[in-house]
Design goal:
alpha+beta, four-stranded antiparallel beta sheet
């Protein structure tokens, strides 16, 4: 009789490989599960850049018109009137005229005087996932936009 040589893996080898794969999956899963939060934080940074870019363009138009040091004025862009405070856009509901952001993706809270708080529409209104735009307070203080808290994204 000829001896038949076995081919393939033994049961113990298969169990060891499955255990190693399980350990790797448990180690890597939290990194991959956190991608949605990372994506929201990234979109907040994108909105912050759009706010800064739009505010700087409005300020440039104000400077050309000579109203960059006036506490309340306006400039026109593509037929839209943009109210300004010291050359920068005022924080009001007309933000869509000067910032390139899809209004369906964001909810904007303009209830605070001189401040707009943006948050993704997909998160709860009380979540800490915001970008805050603050209009210029005086001729020496430019408008600011900063990514707020992101621990609720």
């Amino acid at each position: 009789m000829k001896a038949i040589k076995q081919q393939g893996f033994t049961l113990i080898e298969l169990v060891i490989v499955i255990i190693i794969l399980g350990i790797l999956a448990v180690t890597a899963a939290p990194k991959f599960l956190n991608l949605q939060t990372d994506a929201r934080v990234s979109t907040l940074s994108g909105l912050e850049a759009a706010l800064k870019g739009g505010a700087n363009l409005v300020y440039s138009k104000s400077a050309i018109a000579g109203v960059e040091r006036v506490d309340s004025s306006s400039v026109s862009d593509s037929g839209n009137t943009i109210n300004t405070a010291y050359g920068y856009p005022e924080a009001n509901a007309d933000y869509q005229f000067w910032v390139d952001a899809n209004t369906g993706d964001w909810s904007a809270d303009t209830t605070a005087d001189g401040v707009i708080t943006f948050r993704p529409s997909s998160v709860a209104s009380d979540a800490n996932c915001t970008v805050v735009y603050t209009e210029a307070a005086d001729a020496n203080t430019p408008a600011t936009s900063v990514v707020g808290l992101t621990d609720g994204c």
